[in-house]
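Protocol step 4 of 5: obtain the predicted structure for the target chain.
Materials: sequence only (see below). No template structures provided, no constraints applied. The aim of this step is simply to have a reference model before the mutagenesis design in step 5. Sequence pasted as it appears in the construct record:
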Amino acid sequence: MRVRPVVRVAAAATAVVVAVVGPVPRGAPAAGLPDRSVAVSVPGEPLDDVWAAQVEHALREELGARFGGAWLVDAGFGDDAATQTLVVGITDPADAATVLAAGAEAQVVGRSEAQLDAVVAALNGSAAQAPVSVPGWSVQVSTNSVVVYVHPGTVPAAQAFVVASGVATGEVRFVESGGSPELVEDVIGGEHYYSGNAECSVGFSVDRGDDKGFVTAGHCGKAGTGTQSPSGQVLMANFPFVGGPPDDNDYAYVRLCLHLRLVPATRGIVTGDDLRRMKPTALLVNTSRAGLIAPGALVAALRAGRPGMAAVDVFEHEPVRDATHPLLTMDNVVCTPHIGYVTREEWEVQFSDVFDQINAYEAGSPINVVNPEVLAWRTPSTH
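Step 4 output (structure tokens):
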């Protein structure tokens, strides 16, 4: 990477740097900061990303409340990752030398990362009152701002929401956007979830065809294992083993859904608070077991408008003989007998699994056996 150390001044910054800090000789990184020339390489990741992550972490720790975020920009030498520049925001110009010594560029900004996060936290605290025309907000460190996304022509409603949240309108930028993100579940990288009896960590969100979920470590559960907080099911898992391929990967994919077994650990796993966090435009589908949702919570949530719709084929008390049952009388609810789960795709998956297990048993290598001790009594095939 060609290093071009320059001190930049953000437009919103209150301080101006008049001195240009010259290049710092390579091989002379600041104490405790990683040297780009000896950064540890991680298979499958560009060296630049590894080095940048190390420097960002170190500078965040060293600068503390003066740290204004970090981001990568193209240095103007092409698209290669090695030509990118790490830019670090600072609120105190005196910290420029520390940033430059780490091999990054310094940009003086008006607000620290912590201050930007505080604005987001205030908006998050009023999220339930956000109008439908405000689909979201986030920190944008490269512009040292908090961006509030609004539907076209609805800025006044967004401004009213921001002020009601205790945030001055001058502390955010309003950006018009025609789209709205669909919140399926609160999936936050690094947060804990439970797979069987094990506590694991969410990697990051991933859409796989029509499935929405997240990736995690392969040792967190085999295919078919149910998860809690968030609720879902492991669709695929791979865990490297001793003597296996050297490039084997450790990964698993968890699909978010309510398709869980109803056991003591999952009964009432979806609470009224969970439902109240759903958007008025959200649709909840339960074709698994009614007991997965806390008693009475779904009816109360639908009456309150969060979520705005539901489709169910399971009920708290079955069979449903009362034509005045609340779910049957709501215009925003579709109710069916317990066949709502039937789709072509579901049958393809289910019967493929069934036939795979039959064929594996016939071949003498049974799979997915929950009581393997009985295999000792297996009579050899006479076919």
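Step 4 remarks: Helices lie at 47-63, 96-101, 113-125, 155-164, 272-276, 297-304, 326-329, 344-362. Residues 205 and 214 are 4 Å apart (CA to CA).
Proceed to step 5.
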